[in-house]
Amino acid sequence: MQLLRKLLFPFSILYGIIVGLRNKFFDWGFLTSTSYNFPVITVGNLSMGGTGKSPMIEYLIDLLKPDHQVGTLSRGYKRKTKGFLLLDVKNEAKDVGDEPLQFKRKFPEVFVAVDENRQHGISELRAQRTPPKVILLDDAYQHRKVKAGFSILLTAYHELYSNDIVLPAGNLREPAFGANRADVVIVTKCPLTISEEEKIKITKSLKIKAHQKLFFTGIHYEDYFTNGVQRIPIQLMEKFNLVTGIAKPKPLVHHLKANGLDVKHYSYPDHHLFTEKELETLRKEPLLVTTEKDFMRLKDHFPREKLFYLPIKTVFLENKKEFDQEIKHFVGRA
């Protein structure tokens, strides 16, 4: 792997120059961005997936929906459709993407839309009869044609962008200095017992700017599996097989093992579209547990009593109130 990275390094330099120039053209005004007179918040990352964008979008929905009509806009990764679609709870993941469908079914009162063209998607959302007052952009940090009023950048605890380089030798979509555009940087998937010394070390590594605020979050796993109707306590689920189609399943596997569960793991790539042959293999197993995102793609292929998922949510390790106030203050003045 190290040899391959060395061989690819010259291509990373070239890629970094191209992406860096593109960003500078936006900064200098040679390429234009559209700004909005209503609150638009983007949640994204510099790396290729696995930083916890979906739980953060859900956190923001929970925070804002009591006082505001909220809408979310995603690309709808790996969907088989094109253009703008406003989701209904009856949609299928293959048509709208697994994460947007997860948002809609968890928050049916919220506008959830997909559109690969973020500008067009925002216009369509605002053209609704009772349009959302706040729009959350899922995975749109690199979409410079849209100038969000507030940018949240996520970086995973075990894979900080400051320790990485751009594609293809590394995993960054753009050079690390792109983080300077963010209003807030959040280190996700931290150990719940992270020390102050570690947080100080990470803060120095990320080179947080004066205009930015840094927060640390972890993953809270619920103590039950669910299929949307039934709940089974983790300790009562004696034998099952784990199925994941996410970028980084290791934390979930570690959590299950820490709870004394030894499971057979079927691991697939992120947003994997399961083939009929793969489904047939999985159908031979007596009981399956997956992630909530994967559940959206798998639920129509299995009886309800055979497929469950483990719910998770983002938890702030400190300064939760400060983060909440930061978001509410932006929405209130935008």
UniProtKB/TrEMBL annotation:
Signal as a keyword? Answer: no
Q: Which residues cross the membrane?
A: none
Q: Which GO terms describe its molecular function?
A: lipid-A 4'-kinase activity
Top-level EC class, please?
A: transferase
**InterPro entries to which the protein is assigned, alphabetical:** LpxK (IPR003758), P-loop_NTPase (IPR027417)
Keyword Cytoplasm among record annotations: no
**In which pathway does this enzyme or protein participate?**
Glycolipid biosynthesis; lipid IV(A) biosynthesis; lipid IV(A) from (3R)-3-hydroxytetradecanoyl-[acyl-carrier-protein] and UDP-N-acetyl-alpha-D-glucosamine: step 6/6
Q: Which keywords annotate this record?
A: ATP-binding, Kinase, Lipid A biosynthesis, Lipid biosynthesis, Lipid metabolism, Nucleotide-binding, Transferase
Q: What is its EC number?
A: 2.7.1.130
**What is the superkingdom listed in this entry's lineage?**
Bacteria
Q: Pfam families, per this entry?
A: LpxK
Which reactions does this protein catalyse? Answer: a lipid A disaccharide + ATP = a lipid IVA + ADP + H(+)
- Role, per record: Transfers the gamma-phosphate of ATP to the 4'-position of a tetraacyldisaccharide 1-phosphate intermediate (termed DS-1-P) to form tetraacyldisaccharide 1,4'-bis-phosphate (lipid IVA).
In which family does this protein belong, per the annotation? Belongs to the LpxK family.
What PANTHER family does this protein's entry cite?
Answer: TETRAACYLDISACCHARIDE 4'-KINASE, TETRAACYLDISACCHARIDE 4'-KINASE, MITOCHONDRIAL-RELATED
Q: In its UniProt entry, what is this protein called?
A: Tetraacyldisaccharide 4'-kinase
Gene source species: Mesonia ostreae
The encoding gene is lpxK
